[in-house]
Queue: 4 jobs
Job 1
Amino acid sequence: MQKTDLRDWLHNELFERVPSNIAIIDREYHIVEANKNFKETFGEWQGKLCHNIFRNRNTPCSSCKAEQTFHDGQSRVSEESRLNRHGSSSYYVVHFEPIISPNGEIPYVIEMSRDVTENKRLQREHDILFDRVPCYVTVLDRGMKIVRNNEMFRKTFGESLGKKCYEIYRQRIQPCDNCPAIKTFTDGQVHTAHKSGVNKNGETIFYHVTTSSLSRSEKSPTHVIEMSLDITETRQLEMRLNESHDFQASLIESAIDSIIAADPDGLVTLFNPSAEKLFNYNADEVINRKKIDQFVPPDFIDVITKGENRCLLAESKARNRDKQSVPVRFSGVVLKSGKKHLGSAAFFQDLREIKKMEHDKLEAERLAAVGQTVAGLAHGIKNVLMGLDGGMYVMQSGMNNSNSDLTHRGWEMLQNNIERISLYVKDFLNFAKGKTSINVTSVDPGLLAREVIDLFTTVADKAGITIQAELSDNIAPANMDYEAIHTCLVNLVSNAIDACEMSEKDGGVVILRLFEDKQTIVFEVCDNGCGMDYEIKKKVFTTFFSTKGSAKGTGLGLLVTRRITQEHGGRITLESTESEGSIFRLEFPRKRLPPLTEMA
Amino acid sequence: MTSPSEKKILVVDDEPDVRLYLQTVLADAGFQVETACDGYQALEIFESNPPDAVSLDLVMPRKSGAKFLYEYHKHDEWRHIPVILVTAHAKDDLGQDDFNDIMSNLSIVGPETYLEKPVKPLTYVNSFKRALGIEITEEPHSKEETKDEIKGLLNNADPQKMDQILNLLKQK
């Protein structure tokens, strides 16, 4: 083969095999020559114009690079989107080269294109990754200048290109201590650190930073990529968790209530200072050493055993180290998370102070009642004096006028008032009786009520009044001063009979009821007698108030009744409607009843 | 000159003893006397045959003296009938509210219209005589002065002192 033939053949092979799509176009954009790759990519080209092929157009494209090269003879490179022979669009890097004839004209332009669709996609993915990765990403040069930053970084710290990384993150004028980027610049290795910085709004940001060399081989790289994961929220949650933990801890520490908690096996895990005081143990002696069972009431152990959740005891006892029993209000809970048993917690409210206050209050009330009574005594004496004066006067007048009836009535008045003096003295002494004389035994309330009824049956019959007993069976014996409660009921029943007598209606009925409701023993005395209007109700317990006329009452009966009721921890209530009747009710909560009097 | 026998006085008191006493005192002074045991009865008498004056206890069951007074003030035709209040309760819890209510009411004025129990017969009678324009008998200085003094002292007894005395007694 001739040397020129060989060259032509080699040129031809080169033209056909070069990994590029090559076409030669003339000034009218006819494709005059193209290689095999071109044909494979864009299809049959002969007799076609370049814009027919690439864009499926009949007119030249608006910014045709070939036209520019025909015009100025310059080589060009551009990235263009073209249709391949299957009609789908791809990206190409296209080189435009002029073919210049010896006379300087440009009859043809060579166009060499390479498909970069895949590169383009990778590039785009990379950009998205860089911008959207949930990290602050920067690329630093050796001077610690930021040469690239991602979208998330810009959002948080603002545009920072050209600034030093420590200026932006930490607002410092020198690199930070232990800077991982500096380490990476030194040894090319990956380094990490926990840092905090300040964002563009001046808020503190916590982040975990990783630095890595941008080139794989170099020992001292020119650029380092710095990726920081924002852990502000986690840190804040952590801090809040710590705060809440501290808060709860100090709540428990400073609680007035004693608090004990235990794990599922009953081993004590928490014993607060109040509990130390109440039980007289140090927390160290108890925590992980003792079982909660020894501190809580047995009721709570039952609750735990039965798989229930709560135990509330308004009044219970706690036994301290010295085997002393302390009155407490108790609340216990079984701690669960979903179905998982986490343990138990017990709360004790020391009732010693409250008990003492209750006692003092009772005492104060009693003294106040005595004071009122003494004040009222003067008034009572006044009435007696007036009665005596009156009696003497009436008797004198009767004798002066020889009116034996008047004389007799005057004498009666004198007698009545002298009797009244004895009544006053008796009632008053009764009332003034100190608490010391209370004699508490175990009393059957039903028996007591029955005895009072029997006492009045005859009196009531005579007055034409029906007296009824409605007594619940099976009321357990209770701690009471028999005589005192007897006095109360006698007072109330006798009042009720008087109220029926004072009523204008016939058919008076007095009912004595006894029942127990929620651990409270209730005596009720009802009558359908005259009842009381508002003013009398208001005054009924206040002083020597009697509506019964001179001979019958001193006004002390209800006061005595109230005092006795209060001494038994109970209360007296009254419902009354004028001319319809009254209900007096004595309520004795069992748990407030006094302890048995010790025998001498 | 008006004579007591021309005047009828209504005594209202719930205590029969007091009623009888006051009735006798007034009758001995020559007045005609009628009695009522409470405010209701008093009102009935006022409506059927009004008296010339009324002696009224303030605190009574069912209808207190105050309630009676309330009705009394609603009737202009009764306005000329003087009311003498006789009560033991003016200074204690029981009667104080009623008493203050009444005393703040303009319709009753003058010192002679209110008497505190125990009342002296002569003072009582003279209050009515004064109210009805009848000549007044001189109040004599009697041997009863000591008793009056005791009554006065009792009226002004300090409840706290009484309380202290009681405590002393209890301690023995």
Job 2
Amino acid sequence: MSIISLIIKREFIAKVRNKSFVVMTFLSPLLFVAIAGFIGYLSSMKAETKQIAIHDETGLFANDFVKQNKKEAAFKYLDLSQIDTKALKDSITNERFDGLIIIPKTNNLKELESKIEFISNNSPSISFIEKTQDVIAEKITKINLEKAKLDTLAIQKAQSAVNIHLIKASGEESLKGLNEIKIGIGGAFGYLIMMFIIIYGNMVMRSVIEEKTNRIIEIIISSVKPFQLMIGKIIGTSLAGLLQFIIWAIIGLGLMFAASAFFGVNVGPTTRISPELMQSAQNEMSGSVQMYISELWNLPIASIIIGFVIYFIGGYFLYSSFYAAIGAAVDNQTDSQQFLLPILMPLILSVYIGFFTVVNDPHGTIAVVFSMIPLTSPIVMLMRLPFGVPWWQIAISVSLLFATFFLVVWFAAKIYRIGILMYGKKPTWKELYRWLKY
Amino acid sequence: MSNLLEVHKVVKQYGDYVALNEVSLNVPKGSIYGLLGPNGAGKTSLIRIINQITLPDSGEIILDGEKLQPKHVQTIGYLPEERGLYTSMKVGEQCLYLAQMKGLSKAEAKVQLEYWFDRLGIQGWWNKKIQELSKGMAQKIQFVVCVLHKPKLLIFDEPFSGFDPVNANVIKDEILALKEQGATIIFSTHRMESVEELCDHIALIHKSNKLIEGKLSDVKRQFRTNSFEVGILTDNVEGLMYDITQKFTVSPASFKSLNDDLKLDIQIGNATPNELLNILTQRGQVTHFVEKIPSVNDIFIQTVTG
């Protein structure tokens, strides 16, 4: 045991002292914040206001558009119904306007619905088109209602907005928006595990290859068992990785606060609302915020955190044993590609399943099955956990994960034992299989 | 003399390839034991089994009266042929680490390291990184790492490769000093002159089988050809030739001599050297009379190609 701790210590120190580790640790959060700040800066820049000309031969709609003109709005509408369409079209090609809405005169409004044109040099955004359609449709509806002699005010009053409350059978009330928080939490943890596995699994592999190319390996395994060396390496590297993550988290948080203070990024609502509206909104908001907070506390926090730790350890160890075995089998990193792909596949697959399937149906067949399969369970199950998973599913999943982990470590140790003493050969899958039988 | 290491009928197979075929060895305590054999004979496989890097398929190994166990790695020092060190680690740290893996405490390891660094004149290297050292310098460090924990059994695989003649001599003297202190040394090399110089026992492995084993002098006796190199000054060459060809097989020889003498290689078969001498002295002045002792090189080539 003391030998393993000796190896862990050496691996940890070797990783932490490495220049690229130091540089990465302190530079990546800076880079990350710089990029985030840059994006924030870009999006805070005002987009150019687009000039939209309206040629409304009916005279019914132009006003509704012009009414929308506001300072700092993305579009400015100009009623140019008096000007000849041909001249307007020319001014579009000359880029004097960004777009031209032509509403022709028709026999009736029904006909008009499919006669309106929008002319521009660049194709407009979908949201702009939808908005334009909405304005016109709303107006036509209003006119139609008036023609039918219906009381529009009464109709407005008659319209209802339904807000369904989600309540679980166990009696807790839950909020709709909470699902997004759940996905956010599960997704963040799942993604974190994937990143950790890829970054530090690779580090384990590189360190195995390094010992091979240094030719120190034979000196070392005449003193320790290959298995001890492998486990020590995996643990030592993961500790270095954890340290890096913790430093990142601290620096990242600090920089984020500093950046938001510096750039003056507004967190609250930017548009001015009348005091009464604000009052009522605040009441409503504080009510729902309270509910969110209480709901957050109702999340299976303990099981999420315990689950994160268990799946993190299980998943990381499982995958790094693969990485260690691959490192032992090859002579240099370029040869490792053919073996790495099958490892990356389940990782990527599980993230996709997490973000597409689990989000739609956290307890559907696909989500349940992939949260049982050991190679995908660390990520998929973590994403399911915030939605509440029956304990027996967790039990099966965890025991499968650890059973596989021990099996894989055993296999990996065999390949490792043979591989670290093999030089000059680019092994094939068939050969790896043969090594298992030695 | 009892044996420090006994290898009993060890078999090792890699797939269909038999690397060791029921190989047995007895390494006497306090000896320098030359493990010889052509490339691919199975030497490294055997050495790795003794170091418990790999396990034998069958057979057993007795070290100092006990069956080989994991704890024994602390009593063995191994200098592999393919050797290296962590290039980006400092010399001192690295040696401490490797010594601790062999079961030394940190304090003990430090004392031993200072002793050896002093002895080999490399005191100033403690804070250097391996990548700053030359190959020969790194080899010295590896030698220190190998002997640091005072192992009972030392296994050197081509220990002199990479050393200049001066440093090779330093290492050779250290090996002899270790033997004086009671260590048993297994020595695998292709340099026959160093086998001749250092070893008192040898074994020859060829194509996965052990062909020869024993005391170097015994092995040489076994391979003696009973032929003598003779230098003689005589006026009557024909008479002399007539006399000796009656009894012995004669062929011309070449060796260095200050005399302008007749040089012959004479195979005496079952006769005694005196019988040959009697005939020679009757016919002339004997200036040179030496039994031709087979060199390890001769034995090696004869066994491997024969």
Job 3
Amino acid sequence: MHQSLMDLWYGFGVALQPGNFMWSVFGVLIGNLIGVLPGMGALTTISMLLPLTYVIAPVPAILMLAGIFYGSQYGGAIGAILLNLPSHPPHAVTCLDGYPMTVAGRGGAALGITMMSSFFAASVGIVVMIFLSPLIVKVAFKFGPTEICAIMLLGLLSGATMSRGSPLKGIAMTLFGLVCGAVGTDVISGTMRYTFELPDLADGIELGALCMGLFGIADFLMHVNRVKVKPIQARMSMKEMRPTRSELKQAFWPMVRGTTVGTLFGAMPGTGPTITTFIAYAIERKLAKDPSRFGKGAIEGVASPEASAHSKTQVDFIPTMSLGIPGDAVMALILGALIIKGIQPGPQLITEHPDVFWGLIASFWIGNVLLVVLNVPLIGMWVRMLRVPYRYLYPSALFFICIGVFSTKNSLFDVAEVAVFGILGAIFLALEFPVSPIVLGFVLGPMLEENFRRAMLLSRGELSVFVEHPISAWFLAACAVLVLAQLYAYARHFRVDPGHGGNPGLVVE
Amino acid sequence: MRYMNRLGKEHLGAALIITLGAAVLLLGLTYETGTLRQMGAGFLPVTFGGLMIAVGLAIGLNAAALPGRTADDPASVHPREAPQWRGWACIVGGVIAFVVLGRFGGLVPATFFSVFVAALGDRENSLRSATALATVVDIFSVAVFHYGLRVQLPLFQWG
């Protein structure tokens, strides 16, 4: 524990270096802005700025990416509360009680509570990260290729089953992502796989192009001519943002509960922040003395989900950094970015690159402080930004996507990949397939293959080795539990409600 | 009528996955598969392809067995909306415009036309507003990307 604190101190030193700090601020600002704007989520933004990370050093690069990630969480709440517009899924629940509060004139207080919950939750998440990660490292040294394979399988499976929509479709998309990861030259044998005689594909599909196509272009395709923006009446001043004492009291315990939910789920790979917000909201409703208040402006309905989303966001980094297993698509992207910089996330990350790890944790805290400080005066500006019509936003964004992807490798071919994946993404979305698992599969595929090969080489072709190694067996058991849970839910649903549509509480991202 | 559309969608989705899986599998077989002990380049691709076919079949069976029921989260489904052919063509066209004009025209025309074509996808954009937007973005792009970030795309080039 003492060692952790020393390392954290070192981390602050790293995070506060002017160069690193600057990139952190940049990421946080951009993330916040993007969070406020509907349609462009953290995923899109990170993909757009991915080329930037290629030219800056690893530490500021990941500080920036992380800043975008949790910055966008803050921004998303603003749109949800003031305009009933969730910029992205985790804030859908916040709309339910946040918007009625705005209508009642307490929008400022809702925002204030959100910020407090977020800060509290993020701090708790950070503390958990600090003390949990070194423990994980101790265990992690026992990780060989077998164990890595098993945990990756768990990550892929949970990502597939927990994302939006049918778990079967999630698995299909994960597989598609895995195949996309295989495109290019096979490292071991040198065979060109799925390149269709195109020399540009020898190095595989460009991660940025894939993401921009799937999330950016596909998003535009789904929203063009369909976005309806409500006129904005919000005008915020600093004073309005202070919640009353009673509101604070009401919000305290929900905040704590929400944080707990988020932290617990955070460690689970494959779950996104959205599912934690639903669970937090449901818990609050069950526990409330007067459940009818929910949906009409109950402050618990804002504090708890936001707290869970924020603590989840922070804790999400644990499996990513210490085990190399991304919790969701955004983490997968960040993981991809790290790998490109030559940093292999996993057990050795903490020991081999302590500046990255501890600098990152320190930057979380600094970033969250920054966000609270920034959001108070800047809220007026964010609200004004929301006024830019979508028809100006998306063509500009499209151009930024093109030039961003181009500048990665000076390749127009990569930009063409964006178009291809945009079309594919739109087709998948129209057929109700979730696209996030594709990224998971794409990023983890090569690692999975390499470790699987190695494991098989070492065990001389014996698949039983996965069950023989204890750690790997545990993870496989977890996979089995996941599958069984899904089957159980499916069977139960079938028996209870054969003709009814899906149960929203079950399969949500 | 509505659930029949849903039914079609599920089947379409299943068919798509099965087709993709089959393609992956067949192509994968042309690479050396090897054995578990000594995996060749084709081993995992063939596995993935096979699994995709299996999942596709499962989706299809699920759709056929329980008509009117989808396991999807209703909140995520867009209500049945009209296809936006114009919007779609313009957005994809915008990206293609960037690629083609980037090769044969340079940064300035590529920027202009990618924004212009994409903007025309929105019904509320007139030729004028699209041109105006494209011009503004173009100026911004030349300033920031060419002079500022030194992106390696010449302002103008001929083929």
Job 4
Amino acid sequence: MTDRLDALLAQPLEDVADNGFSMRVAAKIECAAWWREGMMLFAPVAAVAAGLSFLPGEQIATVALKLSPILAESGAIAFAAAVLALTITLEQRLRDLTM
Amino acid sequence: MNEGELAQRAAAGDANAFAALVRLHQSRLRGFLRRMTRGDHALADDLAQETFLEAHRKLASWRGEGSFVSWLYAIAYSRYLMTARRRKLEPLEEADVSSPSPESASALRLDLEKAMSHLSPGERGALTLCFALGMSHEEAAMALAIPIGTLKSHVSRGREKLKTMLHMWDTGS
């Protein structure tokens, strides 16, 4: 009886035909990845938007308006902005060349 | 490419490698879960799908300790236990142990499946992993998340119960 039982137990499980199961799993994984990527993009945007709604918009605008003529007339700031723009442009060109 | 390499590549984000792993394991994993769910094919397939999805999510955290198969079956078994608890699928032990159909075709196999359904999940899992799927005691213990001693006692208790049931049915009592 024991031998017979062991032989019976050792029989492999019946084959289960795939019938599109693997494809469904792959599709679900792709869908989950799409959601994850979407959420990773959406979450920071939503956080920034939520943060912005709490900022005192009018006060910021007033300060910006007061500061803009001063900034426009400052030679040092103009120079720094030019260097920054040049750096970004160069970096982009280099990236294009290496790709 | 062997299974370990496939798993490593899948862990590194290779979708084709993971798809190959799914194709490689789907039949046995679904068979295992069908036995665990006592023949509920739809539930077994849902659990198998969830198992592969969870495996894909956690693959990066699998560091190749132990075999990939035990790791995969550990996910499957824990998913099964959670669902069984939620749906109150267990236990059926000591319930109606009579009335198999001894004269029908492939009766022995049917009898085994019926007898298996009266075992506890641990016994059913241990016997299936060790016998039908040919796992070592270490691998099976890892898959069921139990110590080897407990696994061995599940195996021996399960076999004794099956022997008694099948003998009872054999003699028609």
